[in-house]
Amino acid sequence: MNSDAIKLTKSSLLLNDDVSLEFKDFKEFYEARRTALKLRLANRVSMTDAMSIEMSMEDNDEELIEDTELL
User: Fold this and answer.
1) Would you say residue 52 lies in a domain?
2) Is residue 34 in a domain?
3) Which end of the chain is flanked by fewer CB atoms within 10 Å, N or C?
């Protein structure tokens, strides 16, 4: 066994303990991770205006296909 293996934990992924890592819950995982990364980015670039942060949190991208017929 490789002792240099990376050990991923929920906290290292910026997730709360209540977020499931099960594949069946991928959409919830994706949304939680995406939100956490956006908040971390906003904090890192010092976005202090609450409106700027709120507007940047709007879901504008089209990465997820919402139509379940395609699945």
Assistant:
1) no
2) yes
3) N
* DSSP letters for 5-63: -----TTTTT--TTS---GGGHHHHHHHHHHHHHHHHHHHTT---HHHHHHHTS-----
Overall number of domains in the chain = 1
Flag whether 1 is in a domain. no
User: Dihedrals φ, ψ of 65, to 5°?
Assistant: -90, 120
| Whether pTM exceeds 0.70 | no
pLDDT of 30 reads 95
Instruction: List the domain range (segments joined by +) for residue 31.
Output: 10-45
